[in-house]
Write a structure and sequence with these properties.
This protein is an alpha+beta fold. The chain has a domain of about 80 residues: Sandwich (Immunoglobulin-like), CATH 2.60.40. It has 1 helix and 6 strands, in the order H-E-E-E-E-E-E. Strands 1, 2, 3, 4, 5 and 6 form a 6-stranded mixed sheet that branches. The longest helix is centred in the first third of the chain and has 30 residues.
């Protein structure tokens, strides 16, 4: 009986742990998504929240030394923005999303080299 209770406890704990970590990963993934992550002309920025909220998107070089652009959005649940990268130099960049107390970062690369 004791072995059975221990097994049930372990299964329940592992299931709860997996659900919590899956949920955290899904939330992070759904909030801010970039496509493509290596671009020549445009990067599409997708934002999705469970409920509408105001937020801002800031685009920086990879080391946060140069601010490139900021977009402020008022009370949206889903949002898409196409960022023109044709005037950016080849290299790594960051998209920083701020909404209330939440912050998210995603990276993209500008590369006009043929593979």
């Amino acid at each position: 009986m004791r072995l059975l209770l221990t097994a049930i406890f372990l299964i329940a704990t592992q299931t709860l742990f997996a659900q919590n970590h899956k949920h955290e990963g899904e939330v992070r993934k759904e909030v801010l998504h970039l496509f493509p992550d290596t671009a020549k002309t445009y990067v599409n920025i997708y934002v999705s929240f469970p409920q509408a909220k105001s937020f801002s998107l800031s685009i920086y070089d990879y080391r946060y030394q140069s601010w490139i652009k900021e977009v402020k959005v008022v009370a949206r649940k889903d949002y898409q923005y196409s960022l023109d990268v044709t005037k950016l130099e080849n290299g790594k960049y960051k998209v920083h999303l701020t909404a209330d107390r939440e912050q998210y970062d995603e990276d993209f690369v500008v590369s006009r080299y043929d593979k």
